[in-house]
Specification:
Rossmann fold; GMP Synthetase, Chain A, domain 3; 2 domains; nine-stranded mixed β-sheet; four-stranded antiparallel β-sheet; 22% strand
């Protein structure tokens, strides 16, 4: 493999012009062709990264790795994993000269590791648009659609930018609504006659409730498609969560799940069959690793580890996402031959052991979301005196007491009859954590305290 010096950008030749869609047909190709193309792009990615990344050169040199021994995807396991904490000093990861950087993104830092700066070159922006064009296109979006993007395009966030670029590449009309209020979004939907909403399910739910409270019916609007981002829509068995079923009924629209992160700059999106998120083999290599950091058998859950391909600004190798899922290789009814990622069932560092059951906070809340009696909530994890996990579910109910009407010293509402909550938890996650009822105001203050109502934080780990 030919190595070039820093400052001379080594563009992966097969993906240097994303507008050409050189591999758009790869999603329907035989596995042998997919393997051949992905291997070539992977080797080019390794070559480029080692030529330009101070971090990986130092890391591999220290580990005594001979990069010439990496000749195929089966050799990927010989390379060390990249941790989120490694990205604290992104200068060592930056592979493009400052004159080649055209955009800088910042992650939101919800995991507690702080923000990460991600420099993007012109090619990276083209790749981002190509990725989202094909992802949104899988859901049936075309030039006849109007997308309302309910994600911020400002404050250095990548998501809103990606959806805008992808929608524009599909020649759809893209409405940059951003992270405004439910009232603003509803008025924009009416004004623009939007056909598709891109946003987190909880916000889409708030928009619908806003309309219903004013005797307007979301199901009678022009919206026919919901692209869910940032929050789960399905459980481990691929069944729609209660909140997803309610959203589909509320809007009379189909909901599609997506998964992405700023670090990987790649989207896993459901096609119209809605049986897991297809990923682009020319854009990313995916591994599912167990607790021993070894690949798990097909269909078993583990941590999603990714190697995004074709990135020139800050390429990564074997990046640990911290998300837990599993791979689906069964052929999709849409005809695509690419593997699919199942729903994200939780975060690796959020796994709890409760009464002998492995539990993820997402699953606890997912058991209630969509029930008309449930408004919002969050989960806390604490340690019992014996060192076991103590799990507390805080629930705000629709029509619950106001903040000034709580009834005990701790400020919690008298729970009354909460048997329906216990029943739903027992049915969906098999165990019932401690339950505390709080007011809707208390819930909102806690959940949005870090992100000013932009992003919900619904798990608080107080064990350490």
């Amino acid at each position: 493999m030919k190595i070039k010096t820093r400052g001379q950008v080594l563009h992966p030749p097969l993906l240097s012009d994303f507008s050409a869609k050189a591999h758009a047909e790869l999603q329907f190709a035989p596995q042998e062709k997919i393997q051949t193309v992905q291997t070539q792009l992977f080797l080019e990615h390794i070559s480029y990264t080692l030529a330009h990344s101070d971090f990986y050169r130092e890391k591999y040199r220290g580990a005594g790795i001979d990069i010439q021994e990496i000749k195929s995807l089966t050799d990927l396991s010989k390379l060390p994993l990249t941790e989120k904490s490694d990205l604290e000093d992104t200068r060592k990861f930056q592979c493009a000269d400052v004159r080649e950087v055209v955009d800088i993104c910042l992650t939101s830092g919800t995991s507690g590791s702080g923000t990460t700066m991600i420099p993007l070159t012109a090619q990276d922006l083209s790749r981002l648009a190509y990725n989202e064009e094909l992802a949104l296109g899988m859901t049936g979006i075309d030039s006849s659609d109007t997308l309302i993007v309910c994600a911020a395009l400002d404050r250095c966030f990548m998501a809103g930018l990606a959806y805008f670029l992808g929608g524009a590449r599909l020649s759809a009309a893209v409405v940059r609504a951003g992270s405004g209020s439910a009232a603003q979004h509803w008025e924009i939907i009416l004004q623009t006659r939007a056909t598709t909403i891109v946003g987190v399910p909880s916000l889409i739910h708030k928009i619908g409730k806003y309309a219903l409270a004013r005797q307007m019916n979301p199901a009678e609007s022009t919206v026919k498609r919901l692209i869910a981002i940032g929050e789960p829509t399905k459980d481990k068995s691929m069944e729609l969560l209660p909140i997803s079923r309610e959203l589909e009924a509320m809007w009379d629209a189909r909901i599609f799940s997506t998964y992405a992160s700023s670090e990987m700059a790649t989207t896993f999106c459901e096609c119209e069959a809605r049986q897991g998120g297809h990923f682009r083999p020319e854009l990313i290599v995916v591994e599912i690793l167990g607790h021993d950091d070894l690949p798990v058998p097909e269909g078993e859950t583990g941590e999603v580890v990714v190697t995004p391909l074709g990135i020139t600004g800050m390429p990564l190798i074997r990046f640990r996402t911290g998300d837990i899922s599993y791979m689906i290789t069964k052929p999709c009814t849409c005809g695509r031959t690419t593997p699919r990622l199942a729903p994200i069932i939780g975060r690796k560092n959020q796994m709890l052991k409760y009464k002998g059951t492995t539990l993820y906070p997402n699953a606890v809340l997912g058991a209630l979301e969509g029930d008309k009696r449930f408004q919002d909530g969050y989960v806390e994890a604490r340690l019992n005196p014996d060192g076991t996990d103590r799990v507390i579910l805080f629930v705000a109910l629709n029509g619950g007491l106001s903040k000034g009407e709580t009834r005990d010293r701790a400020g919690f509402v008298d729970p009354g009859d909460i048997s329906w909550i216990e029943e739903q938890l027992r049915a969906r996650i098999r165990v019932v954590p401690e339950i505390r009822l709080i007011s809707p105001e208390q819930a909102e203050e806690k959940i949005y305290q870090f992100h000013k109502k932009r992003k919900r934080v619904t798990f608080f780990d107080l064990r350490y």
